[in-house]
Amino acid sequence: MMATLDDEQRYQSDNSHSRANTRTSIVRVFYKRRTKEQRHFMPAALRTTGRHLRSFACGNAVSERPCLLKCCFYVVIEPTAMNIEQARFNMIEQQIRPWNVLAQDILDLLTVVKREEFVPAAYRGMAFFDTDIPLPGGENMLAPKVEARILQEANVKKHEQVLEIGAGSGYMAALLAYKARHVTTVEIDPDLKALAEKNLGTNGVTNVSVELGNGAQGWNGEYDVIIISGALASLPQAFLQQIKVGGRILAIIGEAPVMNLQVITRTSEQVYDTVNVFELMAKSLHAAAPVSHFTF
């Protein structure tokens, strides 16, 4: 049966100061009696739409936690545009800003480029979660706070040419495109290349070129900024040669369990300055050369 307006108003009131994964607007709520078999399992509808829709109702009382009684109902909440914008705001304020992403232009950009538009449909309910999101081919989108911090550290200027290795869904390329003159993003997986092109086109991003190929050992041209999306045991020499003087390379360097985001700045023709910015874990860059642990 349909929930009453009183139920919806109570839900809105009880959650007006909730965390990022809880919706705050009046939404449509559907009740369905839980069977005996469902009592100990998350309903399929909630599993597929994400943890942010996990709410339960027992009688007329709406709660974020499942009732301990075995007579309760569960609630499925349909997301709305208002819910999405609240979740985006909460992501920025509760995940990204506390991770030392304080540049206002970066925070503003995260409201302009719609992250959920670049997330595969099956995981769109997780677009604002503090977690990596699966992509086709076994790849993934990095967590929002990691992407935002990389973008801040890159400090891209309007006149700069940017190279990205690993297009993924196209989200990072879209963020970079708003800051740069032009972005070249290289993707080795044809399906991901097609996905990135589709997402960028749908969202009106025109200053990005998506190239198919193996960029693990560099790419043609010289660039002001190079961002490598997957982890490398060590940075190939080709990238050092392709970065302009004054340019920056951002790469995840190391092997599990110790990896760091490094910013390598070319200060002169022969001098590079390297800074470890923060520790993280990431998947290895596809087709990156393995490092031998043998000694002779």
List key phrases describing it.
8 helices, alpha/beta, seven-stranded mixed beta sheet, disordered N terminus, four-stranded antiparallel beta sheet, globular, 296 residues
> pLDDT under 50 segments (min length 5)?
1-78
Count of separate DSSP helical elements: 8
Main sheet properties: 7 strands, mixed
Estimated share of beta-strand residues: 25-35%
Q: Given the helix and strand composition, which structural class is it? A: alpha/beta
Estimated helix fraction: 25-40%
What does this structure look like?
The protein is an alpha/beta fold and 296 residues long. The protein has eight helices and 13 strands. Strands 9-8-7-10-11-12-13 form a seven-stranded mixed β-sheet. A hairpin with a 2-residue loop joins strand 11 and strand 12. Helix 3 crosses helix 5. The radius of gyration is 22 Å and the shape is globular.
